[in-house]
Amino acid sequence: xxxxxxxxxxxxxxxxxxxxxxxxxxxxxxxxxxxxxxxxxxxxxxxxxxxxxxxxxxxxxxxxxxxxxxxxxxxxxxx
Length: 79
Description:
This protein has 4 helices and 2 strands.
């Protein structure tokens, strides 16, 4: 089952990937985590995002990073 958690719509923040049903960019979650904050901190700051949405996005990131194609994706992103 494909998670339906990310929305990419040119009419919402110019197509920036956001949590579906919100205007909260996915990048903000990773910025929070990168700065040492927790998912709980993120959820307090962005109450329109659910705990399940955060879990699904992190699961997607894990799947991508553990994928057999990670080298190809990494090389493509590095260009």
